[in-house]
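Progress note, sequence design subtask.
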């Protein structure tokens, strides 16, 4: 076992039954990892980012008929409310989605805004890359989609997987080279008083690395913890530091940016590909996609992160 993997496991605290493991957890006593909402959300198609409204009375997620971005034009955002049997009712297409390629819904902590990525036209011109958009809460529905502007969205690059903290700081992934190939890093943009966003800045070395792809940022409401996915590239000399091709990591905010990210360990990460994390921070529940070579479904498990209040 590499020193990096050993250090990461020793630093992560995972709930495993009544006691919390302080070092390497035994996978045999890990909390169960189960598909989320079988037949409703986890239905055998390709599933992507899941998000809950603050009172947990509605969920949003994205789905596609094939692997994205290979079939990016077919991606759409779905929604559902609780059903009569205690599960989730029949899904419907979100009212602002279904016409264009839409992905990665994220409901802000206050429930007043929903962010997503989309390949919809801008100013009447068709797009080949994904930009970040948002809709604002209007009564029981949502406003028309609003583009987040050029300070966030770069022409010819995919911007994906938006996430915001309570202060409105926006985190997202950007494909560094023109779509659809190139390194992927996590960026942040601060809100301005007029509701627009300041120029986005790439996060530092505690999160982003030159050897790997970092993406799918999920920031905690207080901005102290960042969950994200890290993908081993085929030529990655550090590929043995993880458990599979893609693993989930956590980084803690320090005085000068985020500290070195830590692998979530074998209770979450497996030989399969794990990505698209969503955290119910107050309840200690993690939702993520696990892809073992077929369409990836959303799974759920219990998780407590280090430094979490």
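Output:
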């Amino acid at each position: 076992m590499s020193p990096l993997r050993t250090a990461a496991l020793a630093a992560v605290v995972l709930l495993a039954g009544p006691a919390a493991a302080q070092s390497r957890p035994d996978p045999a006593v890990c909390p169960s990892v189960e598909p989320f909402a079988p037949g409703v959300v986890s239905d055998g198609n390709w599933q992507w980012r899941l998000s809950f409204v603050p009172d947990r009375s509605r969920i949003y997620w994205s789905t596609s008929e094939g692997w994205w971005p290979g079939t990016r034009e077919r991606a759409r955002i779905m929604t559902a409310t609780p059903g009569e049997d205690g599960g989730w009712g029949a899904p419907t297409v979100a009212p602002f989605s279904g016409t264009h390629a839409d992905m990665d819904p994220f409901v802000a902590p206050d429930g007043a805004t929903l962010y997503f990525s989309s390949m919809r036209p801008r100013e009447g011109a068709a797009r080949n890359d994904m930009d970040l958009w948002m809709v604002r809460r209007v009564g029981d529905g949502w406003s028309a989609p609003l583009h987040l502007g050029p300070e966030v969205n770069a022409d010819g690059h995919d911007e994906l997987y938006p996430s915001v903290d309570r202060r409105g700081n926006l985190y997202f992934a950007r494909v560094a080279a023109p779509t659809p190939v190139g390194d992927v890093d996590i960026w942040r943009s601060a809100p301005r008083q007029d509701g627009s966003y300041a120029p986005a800045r790439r996060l530092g070395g505690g999160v982003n690395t030159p050897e790997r792809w970092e993406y799918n940022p999920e920031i905690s409401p207080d901005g102290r913890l960042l969950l994200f996915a890290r993908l081993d590239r085929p030529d990655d000399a550090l590929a043995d530091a993880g458990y599979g091709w893609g693993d989930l990591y956590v980084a803690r905010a320090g005085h000068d940016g985020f500290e070195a990210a830590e692998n979530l360990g074998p209770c979450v990460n497996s030989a399969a590909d794990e990505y698209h994390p969503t955290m119910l921070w107050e309840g200690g529940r993690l939702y993520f996609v696990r892809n073992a070579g077929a369409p990836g479904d959303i799974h759920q498990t219990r998780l407590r992160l280090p430094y979490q209040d």
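Helices lie at 3-11. Work on this subtask will continue into the next period as scheduled.
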